[in-house]
Amino acid sequence: MPTKKIEEAEEVTRCPECNSGHLSFDYERGELICEECGLVLTDQMIDQGPEWRAFDVEQGEKRARTGAPMTYTIHDNVSNATERNLAFALSELDRMASGMGLPRNVRETAAMVYRKAVNKNLIRGRSIEGVVAASLYAACRQCNVPRTLDEIANSSRVGRKEIGRTYRFMTRELKLKLMPTKPQDYVSRFCSELKLTGEVQSKAVEILKDAQDKELTSGRGPTGVAAAAIYIASILCNERRTQREVADVAGVTEVTIRNRYKELTEKLGIKVEL
DNA sequence: AAGACGAAAGTGGTTGA
DNA sequence: TCAACAACTTTCGTCTT
């Protein structure tokens, strides 16, 4: 009896935007990118392919002696309550992640971070939603697909401030060492939202590389630097976008773009003619 | 009319005494 | 704990295209 093969997700071979066949997959970011127009096709690849990130949790359940007695008024089985909370957290995590179009590896990383937080009793005094949001924020950074605190907060029921505080606390307690976010990591996403071609992307990355060598990026907000580089690159490649357009997708103001723009063009000797 | 420019005052977060 | 500080925002008037 021939076993019917499970249907595989249809493979994407053409860009839905410009119909180009030149698609490339950035494994580090978990993003499929069109080389012609720079479109990021995140949601196309979410469920395809093997799970390359091994998921080697988890320590054996030590059911003997749970750490902290929650409260005496609950006669309920502790593990039931814990599992209910975990289920709620994971569904909340999934809701946020799919709302933001984040790839699967990021969700798995976030889930791992969250579990670690639970095991270390970091939830106490904090909302589950806050810890979920902070886990997701950390996971995005760890996977080099950073999202800003504002973006995370917009998909959460928790404010930016609390997410930031919780994130700080968690990285400290869990000893997560996350490098500061590089402006480059924002380029493909912002360019894609601005419908800019891959040419502009490369140019912007090139500018940022130079900027980093000359220490024009340290101490500056990575989104602002990325925005300015993209603005410059868009002009150089004759695909000009206004400061406002770039500012909107990057979540900064025009003023910030102008300041970074001035620094970059002056110190890198870039001539921007009309 | 829309975009770019920059000055000035205000905000929120970090740092160091 | 508080004050100083830098990055960023808000606001607004002016110049350029």
SSE layout and pairing:
Layout: E1 23-26, E2 31-34, H1 78-99, H2 104-119, H3 128-142, H4 149-154, H5 160-173, H6 184-193, H7 198-213, H8 222-236, H9 243-250, H10 254-268
Antiparallel strand pairs: 1-2
The chain binds a DNA duplex (17 and 17 nucleotides) through residues 161, 164, 219-221, 224, 242-244, 252-256, 258-259, 274.
Explain this structure to me?
The protein has 274 residues and is an all-alpha fold. Helices cover 50% and strands 3% of the residues. The chain is built from ten helices and two strands; from the N terminus they run ββαααααααααα. The chain has helices at residues 78-99, 104-119, 128-142, 149-154, 160-173, 184-193, 198-213, 222-236, 243-250, 254-268; strands at 23-26, 31-34. The protein has a two-stranded antiparallel ribbon. The protein is elongated and about 70 Å long. The structure holds a DNA duplex (17 and 17 nucleotides).
What Rg is obtained from the alpha carbons, in whole angstroms?
22 Å
Percentage of residues in strands: under 5%
Total helices: the number is 10
The largest β sheet comes out as: 2 strands, antiparallel
Assembly type of the chains comes to single chain
Sequence of strands across the biggest β-sheet:
1-2
Dominant shape: elongated
Q: Report the span from N to C terminus.
A: 70 Å
The level of helicity is 40-55%
Mean pLDDT: 80
Low-confidence stretches: 1-11, 43-67
Number of beta-strand segments? 2
H and E order: EEHHHHHHHHHH
User: Which structural category fits the helices and strands?
Assistant: mainly alpha
